[in-house]
Amino acid sequence: MKKIFSIVALVSFLASCGGGTQGQLVGVKGKKWHPEKPYGMTTVPGGSFIMGKSDDDLAGLSNAPTKTVTVRSFYMDETEITNSEYRQFVNWTRDSIVRQRLAEEAEIAGGGDGSQGGGGKGGSINDFAFKGSSSENDDTETPYQQYSKHYDPNNQRLNWKPELIWEAADYPDESYVYVMDEIYLPMEQSYNGQRLMDVTQFKYNYKYMDIEAAARSNGDRASFIKTEEVEVYPDTTVWVKDFNYSYNEPMHNDYFWHAAYDDYPVVGVSWQQAKAFCDWRTLLHNGYKVEKGKQRVRQYRLPSEAEWEYAARGGLESATYPWGGPYTKNDRGCFLANFKPLRGDYAADQALYTVEAESYEPNDYNLYNMSGNVAEWVNSSYDAASYEYYSSMNPNVNDPENARKVVRGGSWKDVAYFLQVSSRDYEYADSSRSYIGFRTVQDYSSNDLDLNQPPQ
C-alpha cells in the first residue's frame, strides 16, 4: 500500500512540475489587476514635504514644528462627503435593519425560507425570511447582495429581493405592521401630520482587526478583532446646541434631508461615524467587485494627519493656504474660501453657513475646500508633541486611549488662522459639530513617487 502511495505522489509531483512551468520558478500569479481611481476621487502622488508651521506661530501653540516627512501615493475624495452621499449610507443601514427585523419576525410567525414570492409588493412577511447561512449559495440572490449585508451575529443572509413596503396602506399582514410600528416613533412623539422614524435604531455593525497591536503581540489574533456598533444618523441638533441665543432651526429641520442641501457637506457626524462610513463604503465597493469576479479594492479610510496636510498643500512647498498665500483674497478682491472674515462678517464671502462641496477653486491636486467650509476629521489622535516623535515615513499617531482626534482645515465659522494648512485642532471622537465633516482616502497599490508622472 505504501508503494502504491509513493507512485501516486511521484506522478502527482511530476504532473505539477510539468504543468506549463517546465520546472522553472515562475511564481503564483494573482487575479489580473489594474489601478482604478474610485469615482469622485483624485490621485495624490506620494512624495516628501515640510510638514508644520513655516510662518510665525501666532497662536503660540508650538504644536506644529517643521519636519520633513514622506507619504505614499493615495486617492482622496475631491470634495467633502456630501449629505446625499452620507444618506446613501443611512438608507442602506435603515433598510438592513428593517429587513433583519422582518426576517426575525417571519421566523417567529413560522415563515418559509424566503424563496416564495417577494418580487414586489403584496405577499406576506414570509417573503422577507432569512436566506440561510451566508456560506450557502443561492441563485435567487446575487453575490453583491450576499456580500453587502448588515452584519448578523448568526451569519444569516438577508433577503434583498423583495421591495420594502413603506406605505402603511400597503402593509401585507399584521406581522409586517408590528415590525414597522417598532421602527417609527410613537404617535405621541409626532406632530404636523408627520410620523417620523426612530433614527436611533439605525445602527451599523462591523468588525475590524487592530493590526498594529496584533503585529506587536504574539497572542491569538482573535483577541485583536473588534466589533463596533455605531448609530449612523447625523446629529441634526448640533445646529441648535452649537450656538446659544441664535435662530438656526431651519438648518436643524432641513439641512441633512432636504434636496436643496444634497451637495452640501454632511455635518453632525462624529469621528466614530466617519470611521463606520469608511467601512461601509469598502463593503459596498467590494460587493460589486465580488459579483464581477474582480480583485477586491483597498480599504477606504480617513486620511492620516500627514496625508491630509500633504494633499491640502497641493504640491506647494511652505504655502500658508492651499492656494499659496499669504492672503485669503485673490487679485480681484474675492475670498478664496468659506470662513469667518473681517472680524465676524460671515456674509462677506457670500455664504452664511456651509456652501456646496464643489465651491471655490480646487488646489493643484483638484481638491475642493481643503480650507474652510467644514473642518475635517483625520485618522490621528491629537498630541501637541506628536511631531517630535513620530516617524518621518508615513507618520501617524492614533492612540486608542486618546479620545481627542485631530480636525483640519477650519470651517465656515472659523477665523483665517484655522484655514492655514499647518494649523491643528481637535475634537473628541464621540462628539459631533455643525462645522465638522470629513472626506475619505484609499491607498494606491504602488510605490510610485514621481510627482511629474502621477499614477492613473
From TrEMBL:
Residues 40-96, 235-441 form the Sulfatase-modifying factor enzyme-like domain. Residues 109-123 have a biased composition (Gly residues). It comes from the Bacteria. It comes from Mesonia profundi. Residues 108-152 are annotated as: Disordered. The lineage of its organism: Bacteria, Pseudomonadati, Bacteroidota, Flavobacteriia, Flavobacteriales. Keywords: Lipoprotein, Signal. NCBIfam families: GldK. Residues 1-17 form the signal peptide. It holds the Pfam family FGE-sulfatase. The gene is gldK. InterPro entries: CTDL_fold (IPR016187), Glid_motil-assoc_lipo_GldK (IPR019866), Sulfatase_Mod_Factor_Kinase (IPR051043), SUMF_dom (IPR005532), SUMF_sf (IPR042095). Residues 142-152 have a biased composition (Polar residues). This is Gliding motility lipoprotein GldK.
